[in-house]
Amino acid sequence: MAFKSEEQAKAYWSENLALMFKLLAIWFVVSFGCGILFVDVLNEVRFFGFKLGFWFSQQGAIYTFVALIFVYVSKMDALDKKYGVDE
């Protein structure tokens, strides 16, 4: 990667870290919040025959993580193009 200036490199990494923290926060809320903290409230709702809290703790967090990987890839491609460091 070749940035034109040090400020451009810092801006790139700043945006990259902000994106990662946002996506990790979403994953934390889904996995820890929905799977552990709010499980009793969510278990009152059925999803495909299973209690929703159980579903989030067993599969929902995994599906969310995989979806967040695809979001990260697409956002990083756009960020790379924005700063001219795409391949």
From TrEMBL:
Instruction: Write out the transmembrane intervals.
Output: 21-42, 54-73
- Ranges for domain Sodium symporter small subunit: 9-86
A UniProt-annotated Pfam family: DUF4212
Keyword check for Transmembrane, yes or no.
yes
The UniProt keywords, alphabetically, are:
Membrane, Transmembrane, Transmembrane helix
**Which domain of life does this protein belong to?**
Bacteria
| Keyword Transmembrane annotated | yes
Q: What is this protein called?
A: DUF4212 domain-containing protein
This chain's source organism reads: Pseudoalteromonas obscura
